[in-house]
Amino acid sequence: MITIVLAEDQAMVRGALSALLGLEDDLQVLAAAADGEAAWRDLQRLSPDVLVTDIEMPGLTGLELAQRIQRQQLPTRVIIVTTFARAGFLRRALDAGVSGYLLKDAPASDLVQAIRQVHAGGRAIDPQLALAAWSDADPLSDRERQVLRLAGEGLAAAEIAARLHLSQGTVRNYLSEAIGKLGVGNRIEAHRLARQKGWL
């Protein structure tokens, strides 16, 4: 029996996935969490074989969950199921040790097959995205990404500095670097482009 924890903030999608996977004789959904923090607690408590997670969720994102699993060296394998068909997200997911990356518009049978494949030690990545991921590299550092994300939320340099325990000058340097790397005119354009590419 392959044990699974689901993490999906949309109740209807979460319920549908849970019901769908419950129809398979060799799959068992142990918990279905509505946000990243709840999923993390479930992972620690239940130690499932596979985590099936969305990317964008309240609390912790699917990528942050994958990074935590990787850092803590938990045996749980991660499959991301998302609407984000962006190469940047896939690259970051692979860096975080994710074993599967599927789009929500894929057939349900693809997810079932991916869970079995990943549980057996393989990978299950959308082939078109895999191709695109290696042709469009993310130029941002983790810190630049962090600063740019907060700038995109409307925070001023002083607020970002306080939030990240950095000096205002350092924050401005990170923003300037990100703007330069992305070849745009200001932080708003930088944030928009990085979001569009899946780098944030």
From TrEMBL:
The UniProt record lists the HTH luxR-type domain at 133-198
Q: Where is the signal peptide?
A: none
Task: List this protein's GO terms for biological process.
Answer: phosphorelay signal transduction system; regulation of DNA-templated transcription
Question: Locate the Response regulatory domain: which residues?
Answer: 3-119
Please indicate which superkingdom the organism of origin belongs to: Bacteria
What the entry lists under Pfam families is as follows: GerE, Response_reg
- MF term (GO), any: DNA binding
User: Per UniProt, which keywords does this protein have?
Assistant: DNA-binding, Phosphoprotein
Sites where 4-aspartylphosphate occurs are at 54
**Alphabetized InterPro entries for the sequence:** CheY-like_superfamily, Sig_transdc_resp-reg_C-effctor, Sig_transdc_resp-reg_receiver, Tscrpt_reg_LuxR_C, WalR-like, WH-like_DNA-bd_sf
The molecule here is called: Transcriptional regulator
